[in-house]
Amino acid sequence: MDSQRLQYFEKIENPKHREFIDSLSHCVLCGTVLELRHTKSDEETQIREEAHCPQCEIKTRAKIFALN
Ligand SMILES: [Zn+2]
Q1: Element holding 19 (H helix, E strand)
Q2: DSSP H or E run through 36
Q3: What pLDDT is stored for residue 31 in this prediction?
Q4: Which of 34, 46, 56, 65 has CB atoms 3.0–4.6 Å from 41's, for a disulfide?
Q5: In 10 A of CB 60, how many CB atoms?
């Protein structure tokens, strides 16, 4: 467990940050809860996160996480 990750979780406990995180999980257009999809790359060194609104059929964000 690295210290950066620990700090991240501590910040979530702050109500203001939690509100901010909640707002990120809802569609900005219609407020529907976004569906998150995580897909591994072929090399399995990265995870791609896509947030998708089932109502508007839009993809609001796509992130890439490196696994190592
Ligand atoms: Zn929407």
Answers
A1: helix 15-24
A2: strand 35-40
A3: 87
A4: 46
A5: 16
Gap from CA of 32 to ligand 1 centroid (Å): 5
**DSSP assigned state of 41:** -
Distance 66 CA to ligand 1 centre (A): 28
Domain boundaries, the chain: 3-66
Token readout for 66 is 């490196």
8 A C-beta contact, residue 44 and residue 67: yes
Cα 61 to middle of ligand 1, angstroms? 13
Q: State the Cα–Cα distance between residues 21 and 19, nearest whole angstrom.
A: 5
64 Cα to the center of ligand 1, angstroms: 22
